[in-house]
């Protein structure tokens, strides 16, 4: 952990993209080589070089907000994107600007708000928004099949928008899902039917935002809620009498005191850093300052604050272990590369403005619900 903290202490801005138009940068994905993909609030996907941040090209086919991006694990030139337009699309990252290689759809009423690809690159899953005020679905496809490759759906495990689906990094059949109904579910898809596949339901006591696998054997789950709650569970304890909850807090903003005596305004997300054996949580302030935190059974511990980069809310980040670099994107339209010994490029805030269309792209509000399952944790 000390080694990671030393690496973070040396970070400063090495590269910066200057926004050509007022858009938000929402999601980011990287492949093992030199490609970075970023989704934007104008429904486009930008491809960048990870070292220079040079724009290499873009895709402009989606008709609704994007809900995520991921590169294939075994074929790093294949890029998947999911959208509220009811499609998951496969792109050849070597040919930016071309049509999708494959398009995955389900029922016309389905609008996707999350998706993921399993570690074998054989199975796709998307989570839908609530349909007709009643149901939400987990939709599955065989990614190897031409056509839509639709395998089926799970329909009983969530009652509202499925905000996150996240496959286990090593087990191709293990899937976690989170929803605005407050539930985080873990499935073993090898068991087939939905009731048999559902292994455990954890309750976040709020609208679940993001879910992240963590821990030395990836047996832990971190959930960040839409009202900045934080819940860390160990689902490897299912066959024991030990409690699943490692740490839980309804308002993680209050856990960390910053240099000015204040706290965080929001949580950006989390990432398990396998090389450092650390769970990184990134929080922010409304002025664009970022705060890098270590999450463990003891809660959150501040490792480094990054100032002078963004000028408003940050929406996505990635840690590149090979380059020991942090990549961040936000509502100021900027994409930043933070590296040890960076040039500390500072942009004055008055140079950045937002359009009315960009301002409409903030996360839509989520309702709180009466939770329908008995709390397991």
From TrEMBL:
Matching PROSITE patterns: WD_REPEATS_2 (PS50082), WD_REPEATS_REGION (PS50294)
UniProt keyword terms in alphabetical order: Repeat, WD repeat
Highest taxon of the lineage: Eukaryota
Position of the signal peptide: none
SMART domains assigned: WD40
WD repeats: 59-92, 155-197, 307-339
Pfam family, one: WD40
Entry-linked InterPro entries: WD40/YVTN_repeat-like_dom_sf (IPR015943), WD40_PAC1 (IPR020472), WD40_repeat_dom_sf (IPR036322), WD40_rpt (IPR001680), WDR89 (IPR039328)
Protein name: WD repeat-containing protein 89
Species classification: Eukaryota, Metazoa, Chordata, Craniata, Vertebrata
Gene: wdr89
């Amino acid at each position: 952990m000390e080694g990671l903290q030393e690496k973070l202490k040396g970070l400063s801005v090495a590269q910066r993209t200057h926004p050509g138009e007022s858009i938000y940068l929402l999601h980011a994905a990287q492949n093992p080589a030199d490609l970075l993909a970023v989704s934007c609030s104008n429904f486009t996907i930008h491809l960048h070089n990870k070292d220079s941040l040079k724009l290499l090209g873009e895709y402009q086919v989606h008709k609704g907000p994007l809900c995520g991006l991921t590169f294939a694990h075994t074929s790093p030139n294949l890029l998947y994107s999911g959208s509220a337009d009811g499609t998951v699309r496969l792109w050849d990252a070597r040919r930016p600007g071309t049509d999708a290689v494959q398009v995955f759809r389900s029922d016309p009423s389905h609008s996707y708000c999350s998706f993921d690809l399993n570690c074998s690159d054989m199975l796709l899953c998307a989570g839908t928004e609530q349909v007709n005020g009643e149901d939400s679905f987990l939709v599955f496809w065989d990614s190897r099949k031409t056509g839509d490759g639709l395998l089926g759906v799970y329909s009983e495990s969530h009652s509202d928008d499925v905000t996150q689906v996240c496959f286990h990094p090593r087990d191709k059949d293990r899937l976690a899902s989170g929803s605005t109904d407050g539930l985080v579910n873990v499935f073993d898809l090898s068991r087939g039917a939905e009731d048999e596949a559902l292994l455990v339901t954890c309750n976040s006591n709020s609208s679940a935002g993001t879910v992240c696998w963590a821990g030395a054997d990836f047996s832990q789950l971190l959930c960040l809620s839409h009202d900045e709650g934080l819940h860390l569970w160990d689902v490897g304890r299912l066959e024991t009498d030990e409690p699943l909850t490692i740490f839980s807090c309804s308002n993680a903003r209050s856990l960390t005191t910053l240099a000015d005596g204040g706290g965080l305004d929001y949580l950006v997300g989390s990432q398990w850093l396998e090389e450092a054996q650390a769970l990184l949580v990134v929080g922010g302030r409304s002025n664009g300052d970022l705060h890098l935190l270590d999450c463990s059974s003891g809660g959150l511990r501040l490792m480094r604050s990054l100032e002078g980069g963004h000028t408003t809310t940050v929406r996505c980040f990635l840690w590149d272990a090979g380059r020991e670099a942090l990549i961040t994107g936000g509502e100021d339209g900027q994409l930043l590369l933070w590296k040890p010994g960076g040039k500390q490029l500072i942009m004055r805030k008055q140079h950045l403005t937002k359009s009315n269309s960009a301002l409409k792209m903030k996360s839509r509000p989520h309702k709180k619900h009466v939770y329908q399952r008995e709390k397991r944790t």
